[in-house]
Amino acid sequence: MSKRINRNIYRSLLILSFLGINGLILFGLSTTLSYLNSGADRSSMLHLEANLDESYLPKMNWDRAKNLGRPIGDQTLMEIEKDYLSAWHVRNMAYKSNDPFGIHDYYTDSARVKLFDIINLNKANDIELNTTTLAHNPKIEFYSTDGTLVVISDNNVTSYEEIYKADKLLVKQRDTTNYQIMMLLEDGFWRIRHLEINSKELETVQLETQDSINRVEDINSIKGVNYYPKDSPWDMFGKKFNDSIIDADYKLIKSMGLNTIRIFIQYEDFGKANVLKEKLDKLKVALDLAQENNINVIVTLFDFYGNYDVSDWTITDRHAEQIVTIFKDHKAIIAWDIKNEPDLDFDSRGKEMILAWLENMILNIKNWDKNHPVTIGWSSPQAAINLSKEVDFVSFHYYQDLNAFEYAMDNLKLEIPNKPIVLQEYGISSYSGIWNLYKGSEKKQAAYYEQIQKVIKEKNIPYVFWTLFDFEEVPVDVAGRLPWRTKKQHYFGCIDKKGNKKAYFKHLK
């Protein structure tokens, strides 16, 4: 009896397995047929780094002058633009990886041949092209009556290219090129049939030589503090944003005889390429309150950003463009600080990559805002030599031996004699505990400030000290989890956690 039951169970399992396998096969076939009939989503096929608007956003300036042939509607133009940019994006990725994956979907048969030849040649010679386009100026020249062919002229296409051989950088260059493009509508998508260069004018990687001088003179009179509210350090524009608290802090700062604050815009927190309106609104409130209190603001961009790769440039361009163009006329802003301590990423990301990204951003910000000076917040006087010719004034941080500060400052002035130099961060923690063998104290902190403020006053050095408050909490992203690193970050302020003035407060006036 039991054997018969077991046989029946076994047969049932076989039947269920057979039905299940066939069901999966039928489901797969139906999905495939549906996919083929409806047209493929090529962004998912190609794994195009999520959406295009998250990976590749060059500036597009369409010339909408009347074209030959059939008039073109807005929806059609949007579809052409999407596929046109996707074609550039796929091409850039293929050149970087020397893998033609995706070329088939955005270029016709004849157009692929040249691209495949370039990729194969580069692969054979161990050459890699890291390239992107930064700005396009397209115009529809002709649109066919049947709506399947379009001719585009794209003039003054700004691009940046790095050429590597065996992982060694050989050449980096910006250039401006004019293109003539023919695209065909196939399977519901626009593919490039021809992409030819009309004329090419190479542009050396030189930035504007003229500084943004409107407020450079104000730089020499900076007396300031790196500012976060007491209860929201490294998250000034987050959920705890409170205009009343910020206003009270500004009044305190002004009463200390200070005239400048430095604030930080976190790249991801503000929405990356699509900057969040709620963040912009909070930034405006902070700037408006600063103006009301007669306080100047150094706005530090790209906090906690660390990619720098050429493939990311158009995304960071759009992020900065939105912020800078919106606030370029705000009277509270004294300067744009592109990045906080980018040299700390030299080892992990590569010095040349980071400097190239910074050069591009300097050029962009000076183009968007011709009134405010631009700087970079280097982590040391030694690093501040980098790009000193490109910035309007030099900024550096000093957390080294206090007795060597005067020499470091004098040496930096010899290296960079013709530009203002700002001591943009400095300070010492009063933390005293097991993690520093009880060596810190408010008394030692006060002695530090007494000594350094004396040098600052004698040499008339613009300064921005770190920081206004001691903090209850410090995010892991700032100092990690190791207690001997994190504990000291809580105690740099001139006002303690209870709101009392610490011993060094008197030396700041």
Explain the overall architecture.
39% of the residues lie in helices and 23% in strands. It is α/β, with parallel strands linked by helices and 509 residues long. The protein folds into three domains: 37 residues; 155 residues, Nuclear Transport Factor 2, Chain: A, CATH 3.10.450.50; 293 residues, Glycosidases (TIM Barrel, Alpha-Beta Barrel), CATH 3.20.20. Strand 5 and strand 6 form a beta hairpin. This is Glycoside hydrolase family 2 catalytic domain-containing protein. It comes from Saonia flava. Pfam families: Glyco_hydro_2_C (PF02836).
Q: Helix count, per DSSP?
A: 15
Question: Per DSSP, what share of the residues sits in E-state strands of 2 or more residues?
Answer: 15-25%
What's the rounded overall pLDDT mean?
A: 91
- Name the helix and strand elements from N-terminus to C-terminus, one letter apiece: HHEEHHHEEEEEHEHEHEHEHHEEHEHEHH
CATH fold-level assignment of the largest domain: TIM Barrel
**Any idea what the radius of gyration is?**
29 Å
Organism: Saonia flava
Keywords: Glycosidase, Hydrolase, Membrane, Transmembrane, Transmembrane helix
Domain Glycoside hydrolase family 2 catalytic: 222-452
GO molecular function: hydrolase activity, hydrolyzing O-glycosyl compounds
